[in-house]
Amino acid sequence: MADHWFSAFLTLFRETFEGIPPGQNYTIFVQGKEGIFDVFDSVDAARASAKPNEDCASIFAHMNHARYYLSLWNASARGEEVEGDWAGSWKTQSGDEAAWAALARDFRSEYQEFIGHVQAMPATNEDKALGRLAQLAHAAFHLGAVRALMKVV
After folding, report:
1. N or C: which end of the chain has fewer CB within 10 A?
2. What is the maximal distance between C-alpha atoms in the chain?
3. According to the model, what pLDDT value does residue 129 have?
4. Quick check: is 7 in a domain?
């Protein structure tokens, strides 16, 4: 049972970030090239920094915050003591092309590290399983928010 759950989790998690897998002609819940990494490939820094109104976070902020959340999980998986700054992870609302490219690079790196930690942990550990599911839900939420923002900025 745990193997099926773990396989399903990895499929959904990868799709959230990578979109449609190479050689596959369907997705489970995103529409093809609509994963988190596709946002970096299809949106420039100016658009990522735009906000439809002052009360709304930018695409840049959502992507930075989601990367931050992954980095906290990775630090904890490395055995580091984690003291997060949730509010601070939302402060960066904009950046130039170099900052956007650096965010994309850092995000991919955190993602790869996360996948490595997940694959190394027993799938039967309930606390770790909840943490994995929280990452999936959190990433999917921000992907949906970013996709909505892409329609208005």
Report:
1. N
2. 47
3. 76
4. no
